[in-house]
């Protein structure tokens, strides 16, 4: 009987081996449950598995994210540790990565690690962060990393997807964009040395009829000449059928170390082009100071009828808003957004000035046009939806 059992087991294993080595439909179905990093390792087994893995990768076209908050136990920002652990379980290959982190780790105020960082020269600290990100992420991915006074994020833990406003404390998120059919995402970084017509065209900001959304972040905007520099970008965008959203941040880590002069102002961002992209944004002005008023304004996003699948919400708010603006009531604007769009994750920051306006971008239809001055604000919040098809 034992001999018969062993023989039966061998037959079963032989059949399983035959199926896994020859039936692509079965292998492909199994691989849909495998995270991307493990999928790359599996793809080395044989040609069939490699071909199945490639087909599975092409289906993974939805944005995902990793986020972290609270004090890190390690000598680095909590987001970096979260990414090291979380990237093992991600079901896409990041092509473009947008990261935002609070500025407490980069000002040298709150721990021995931060004091140590404060003693380092700034380019060295920047290099440490970018080197760490390059080791964590695929070598050919574009990385845009910015630092802001406060963070708005949606937890990546599936058990709790309620967005939260962090006006203090350690927090950050990384939005991971895969290669998507009909969607082209390009990063840009301009300073006085690099701004030119050819650079604008290369970034997709000029001579690009498919441009739909521009996420734009200025740094060191208080310096002489920064406002005029920013207007060079905003004036043509304000007259176009493009959704513009963003604001002024503390700093942006440079991918090219020799791009900017030390202490120079500049602009970074992402252009999103393609026929499948739709977007809408509303501006919560200074007079919006109650939860009811915030809901009335944000509810206008509903009227745009933007699809909510594979859609991301962005909230770019003034540091003077948050609970300080709502009589001590926390998380007002993020809660209202979640009430109206419970399935859409929300990300953004509290910064030093906001960029955007009321606008809807759908196919060839655009609601609202404005000049560069009408795109820049203070004491406001720009709330946006971006649908990626």
Protein architecture, described:
The chain is an alpha+beta fold. Helix content is 30%, strand content 28%. The chain contains 11 helices and 19 strands. β13 (311-318), α11 (332-340) and β14 form a beta-alpha-beta unit. The relative contact order is 0.14. Pfam families: F-box, FIST_C. Residues 226-358 form the FIST C-domain domain. This is FIST C-domain domain-containing protein.
CATH topology assignment of the domain at 22-59: Monooxygenase
**What would CATH call the class of the domain at 22-59?**
Mainly Alpha
Strand order of the largest sheet: 5-4-14-13-19-12-16-17
How large, in whole angstroms, is the Cα Rg? 23 Å
* Content of β-strand: 25-35%
Succession of helices and strands: HHHHEHEHHEEEEEHEHEEEEHEHEEEEEE
Architecture (CATH level 2) name of the domain at 22-59: Up-down Bundle
Note the main attributes of this structure.
389 residues, alpha+beta, Monooxygenase, 8-stranded mixed beta sheet, 28% strand
Topology:
Elements: H1 2-22, H2 24-31, H3 36-42, H4 47-59, E1 64-69, H5 78-86, E2 96-102, H6 112-119, H7 122-136, E3 142-148, E4 150-153, E5 164-166, E6 171-177, E7 184-191, H8 197-203, E8 211-219, H9 226-238, E9 243-249, E10 251-252, E11 266-273, E12 278-284, H10 291-298, E13 311-318, H11 332-340, E14 346-351, E15 354-355, E16 359-362, E17 365-367, E18 376-377, E19 381-387
Parallel strand pairs: 2-3, 8-9, 13-14
Antiparallel strand pairs: 1-6, 2-6, 3-10, 4-5, 4-14, 7-11, 8-11, 9-15, 12-16, 12-19, 13-19, 15-18, 16-17
